[in-house]
UniProtKB/TrEMBL annotation:
Entries under PANTHER family matching the protein: GH17980P-RELATED
InterPro entries linked to this entry: AKR, Ara2-like, NAD(P)_OxRdtase_dom_sf, NADP_OxRdtase_dom
The protein's name: NADP-dependent oxidoreductase domain-containing protein
Gene Ontology molecular function: any one: D-arabinose 1-dehydrogenase [NAD(P)+] activity
Species, as recorded: Lipomyces starkeyi NRRL Y-11557
Amino acid sequence: MSYVQLPTPPSESLRVLGAVSSRESTNSLDGLPPLILGGAQFNYQYNDDPYRLPAKDIIRHCFEAGVCAIDTSAYYGPSEILIGEVLADPEIAALYPRETYYIITKAGRIAESSFDYSPSWMRQSVERSLKRLHTDYLDVVYAHDVEFLPLDDTLPGIAELFKMKEEGIIRNVGISGYPVPVLVTLTKLVRQRLGKTIDIVLSYSNFTIQNRRLKNSLDEFYAAGVKKVLNGSPLSMSLLRSQPPHAFHPASEELKRRVALAAKHTASKNVELADLSMRYALRNWEGTTVVGYSSLYEVNAGIQAYWESQNKEITTEDEELVREVHEILGHGLDEVWTSGLKENCEYIL
């Protein structure tokens, strides 16, 4: 199988799709671009020394290409600090005033096994993020990885986020996590108990060439009043590529084995599984996708993948190979792994 080689599109093309200037109001999420720069790459989990990454070049290149939103977290090691230093850089600040991009962060998760959703900590975390990111407001703050606490225990922290929204510190309140049913339940619980509507939801590894569960639940999120549902990690945290996944990856060994077989199959057709997977996710997702980049090469590849996903000829060529990958995955198609408390999956409203 041979693919059409497209030149990297001019940055103005992507900007038209996602310019922040198209926001109807300062609180609107309507200007979110189709791609968001994921800040987890500026952390030790993905890079041995995130301080050595060309953060300024990555962020500037993303902004030039219309990727005018950054997703990070207080939990992501030095991520907020590195991003904040770039945004405060006089050169970047002159080129890109604060109102021309979105800053999205998260609160509530402190360490791998440490969480605090108390109102006092959530406020303290947000205030620290404001300082680190050199801003006086945040476009979105997610309650981070909500599945690891009893859902009832997340409500005080989420209520505090809504309080900060009323104060103008936060523009939109969201929740993030892995298990889609838990996220759906919590959006309903917040509406029922707090009388509030979650503005935005982020899940990761749940709309990929291997797992399509997030898209199947969109109607439930929208019925609960959610405005935007974002798809994170379309390569499933390094699972969907020809190289072995990172050691921390929680997928079953059988799923990893099947993905490796799929990668060998696509390679036999001169197609890298990661490229096919990225195009699949970008082509079929209804909204914005969060993708992390560690280099300018990866930024360019991500933007290229977006435009290739919109190309009809490449789409036609991809379709048969996607079907073959799904056949190889077999029972691994739509397989998920355990994340968080079992009781949350059984929560009854």
